[in-house]
Write a structure and sequence with these properties.
The protein is α+β, with helices and mostly antiparallel strands. The chain contains four helices and five strands. The strands form two sheets. A three-stranded mixed β-sheet has the order 3-4-5, with no helix packed on it. A two-stranded antiparallel sheet has the order 1-2. A hairpin with a 6-residue loop joins β1 and β2. It binds zinc ion. Zinc ion binds next to loops.
Length: 100
Amino acid sequence: MSPKSRTERTFKLRPQPYRCPHCSWEFSLRKKKCCRGCGILLLIPTDNMSDQQLTALNSFWMWDPANERWKFIQNWEEHKRKAGATFDAYFSKVFSAATT
Ligand SMILES: [Zn+2]
């Protein structure tokens, strides 16, 4: 018998239920990046947005997996400045971890 491979035991991100912070619509998967109830932008890690896309959006709700709650980003550029040197790590954790 062969031992179980490491990859089998690796944590996989499953779709988790989210609740819109604005209208309380519940979802785990959605086709558009918007709430179906009220239309606001709700970005989750699996959206895998690029920095460029986020810069274009500028203002949006973003799921914070570390705290398991929504975070409203009012100004992406300013948010990045505040995060400073730790931003790269934060960014890759939030937006890349889900796809690896
Ligand atoms: Zn909503």
